[in-house]
Amino acid sequence: MNSKKELWVLLASFVLPIALGTAFFYWNPTAFTGTTVNYGEFVNPVITTEKQDVVFSQKTQGDLQGLWTLAYATSTCDDVCKNTLKDMKTIRILMNEDMRRIQRLLLINGTTDLQDPGVLIANPSEALSQQLNKFPNNSLFLIDPLGNVMLRYDPKALEIKRVIKDLERLFKYSRIG
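The structure corresponding to this sequence follows.
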């Protein structure tokens, strides 16, 4: 009699948590709302870039492969552009030992006479421009080391601390770049 009781207690200790967890998951729709912990807006679907999608200027040769890239996409580099480039530099510096994993890119439709050391200047291809036109003009994008555009930030309401938190979280789990 005692052994049957122990068997039921042992069986209940394994089955009951699984049954309660399943019931909670399916019968409580407000528990999992699909919110994320990132502060940037996910680019959905992710925009993949190829080598020919980003044409670097003669002065600044670079590559999107291997490093995380903060890319500012615009048609002209005005005061908002220059302030965003300064914010990008601040973000890179505040990443401390991980600053070598980040590069800055000005993705501009047209030409510019910007002379900022450390900023890569490139023109997007027609295909990449069409994909980026789905977003507001003058947007800040985060590109992963494989060349995928994954997060977008509004540079007018850019909070540097939040971008740094997103980058720290990505760098914690990323083994590349």
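Residues 1-35 form one domain.
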